[in-house]
Amino acid sequence: MEEQELDLLQLWEVIKKRWKIIVVFPIIAALLSGIISFFVLDPVYQTSTTLIVGKKVSDDISNQASQLLDYNVLMANKQLAKTYGAIAKSRTVEENVIKSLKLEMTAEQLDKKITVDSVMDTEIIGISVVDKDPNLAADIANAMAKQFTDSVIDIKKVDSVSIIDKAVPIDIPIKPNKSLNILIAFVVGLMAAVGLVFLIEFLDNTIKNEKDVEEILGLPVLGTIPDFYAEKK
User: Fold this and answer.
1) What DSSP character marks residue 36?
2) In whole angstroms, what is the distance from residue 124 CA to residue 119 CA?
3) I need a labelling partner for 173 at 20 to 30 A (CA). Which of 85, 158, 159, 208 fits?
4) Helix spans in 80-227 (H)
5) Whether 213 contacts 222, CB under 8 Å
6) Span 42-62, mean pLDDT?
7) Amino acid 24: pLDDT
8) Residue 186 contacts by C-beta under 8 Å, 6 or more apart in sequence?
9) Each residue's pLDDT tens digit, 73-121
């Protein structure tokens, strides 16, 4: 127990001896992160539209048959969700979006801005778009929905594609997360500072006091010379 307390005291002495490094490093890291987050990185906005793809059920069948058919169609639509996602992100759809909006970008560049997800256990498709311009992001998402509707009806011969929510511009950026960046930079700077302090202490093999003489050289201390200058000061 005493040895453990001694080790903790030694660690505290190391930290206390070089406390300025531990304080300054994380502050500088946080300031740099804040400057980069506020003045260097461009904000990125995200918006999305959701669609539902399905088949209509005929009105001239019995109620029981209608329920069974509804269930079968629902299960089929769930299984086709990944297929719909691939169609939505196909080169044909993306090139049509570029043409319709007269975008100055390639299909590969547009593809990086788009994410297509299927809502679990449903036939709902979500199309999300990120861009530095929130209005352009909304325009791309809505154009994607329109082009996807035309393509999936033509390719899969589905009866209906309905837009649940149209994309609207959202003025709150999803990144950079300035507060989180600053916090992470502070924590990383603190960890780096503590590591640097202990590294300096580990590499420092100079003898500074009688305790170092006993521990490093294994010799007993017979006497010490007082620092008259320090006492006078």
Assistant:
1) I
2) 6
3) 85
4) 81-88, 91-101, 107-113, 134-156, 178-203, 210-212
5) no
6) 74
7) 95
8) 26, 27, 29, 30, 33
9) 556 656 677 788 888 899 999 999 999 999 999 999 999 999 998 876 6
C-alpha distance from residue 50 to each of 111, 115, 125, 189 (Å): 18, 12, 6, 42
What is the CB-side half-sphere exposure of residue 153 using CA atoms within 13 A? 13
**Which tokens hold the place of 125?**
């498709």
Residue-range domain boundaries for the chain: 13-40+176-232, 45-165
Instruction: Tell me which residue has tokens 């202990």.
Output: 198
Question: In the CATH scheme, what architecture does the domain 45-165 have?
Answer: 2-Layer Sandwich (3.30)
Mean pLDDT of all residues in the chain? Answer: 81
The identity of residue 30, as a single letter, is: A
Dist. CA 6–CA 12, nearest whole Å: 10
**Neighbour count for residue 18 (Cβ, 10 Å):** 16
Answering whether pTM is above 0.90, one says no
Residue 77: per-residue pLDDT: 57
| Cis check: omega of the bond before 220, within 30 degrees of 0 | no
The strand pairing partners of 56, in sequence order, are none
**CA 201 to chain CA mean position, Å:** 36
